[in-house]
Amino acid sequence: MNQSKVAIVIAGGSGMGAAAARQLHQAGYALGIMSSSGKGEALAQELGGVGVTGSNQNVADMQKLVDAVMARYGRIDVLVNGAGHGPKGDLLSISDEDWIKGLEVYFLNVVRATRLVAPIMQKQGGGAIINISSAWAFEPAALFPTSAMARSGLAAFTKIFCDEYGQHNIRMNNVLPGWIDSLPKKDERQAAVPLQRYGKADEIGATVAFLASDGAAYITGQNIRVDGGLMRHV
User: Pfam families from the xrefs (predicted)?
Assistant: First the structure.
């Protein structure tokens, strides 16, 4: 058990973020959780951790979470970055403002949290950052244009971060979920998955918990598809 270790989960109120928080709790991590809905704060109370209601698009809100976790536990070993839902629409009808909103939701959420947490991890001698991205980051689909745009950028950011911070034993990886049961199910989408089912949020949570663990200590800079075989490239 990692009783001395601490994880913070941003956008951890429901779905994959909440599943990740529960899996980390089961692995023995003390938790700090933030969401905009208040569900993250409630989950943190349930799991005996620190909860904050706020937005990952607001640096002050994230600083509040980091400060609260540091005040109680004095360290941060794992950062999990979830995301909300960004704008969609016909490609050439998406406004400049909505493209920028996509960057806020799917890219800058990670950059801002990493700025706050990486220096803490550096002083401690290491840590793990796990970003919940999307299987469509590398096979873009018209369904998710702003997500695909921002999350391909996130992959580039992740590689550069690992090049620079690997020497400090800080790892960063992206989890790329496909169709997950926290979304409404559609038969035609399920039929396109080789495993013939939607994934479970708990399966994403388990992947996050593994990437946080000592068993993944030599895994960094990776984009790990958890999509039932949906994506085609090899």
Answer: adh_short_C2
What's the half-sphere exposure (Cβ side, CA atoms, 13 Å) at 213?
15
- What pTM did the predictor assign? 0.97
pLDDT digits (tens, 9 = 90+) for 97-151: 999 999 999 999 999 999 999 999 999 999 999 999 999 999 999 999 999 999 9
CB atoms within 10 A of CB 58: 12
Q: What's phi and psi for 169, nearest 5 deg? A: 65, 30
CA distances from 37 to 34, 71, 135, 201, 222 (A): 9, 23, 25, 18, 30
Residue 158 Cα distances to 31, 152, 164, 173, 201, angstroms? 24, 10, 10, 7, 23
The conformation of residue 91, written as its DSSP 8-state character, comes to G
Q: What is the CB neighbour count within 10 angstroms for residue 30?
A: 23
Cα–Cα distance, 184 to 90 (Å, whole number): 21
60 and 71 Cβ atoms separated by less than 8 Å = no
Terminus-to-terminus CA distance in the chain, angstroms? 36
User: Does residue 166 sit in helix, strand or coil?
Assistant: helix
17 Cβ neighbours under 8 A, 6+ residues apart: 9, 10, 11, 35, 40, 80, 82, 132
Contact 82, 16 (CB under 8 A): yes
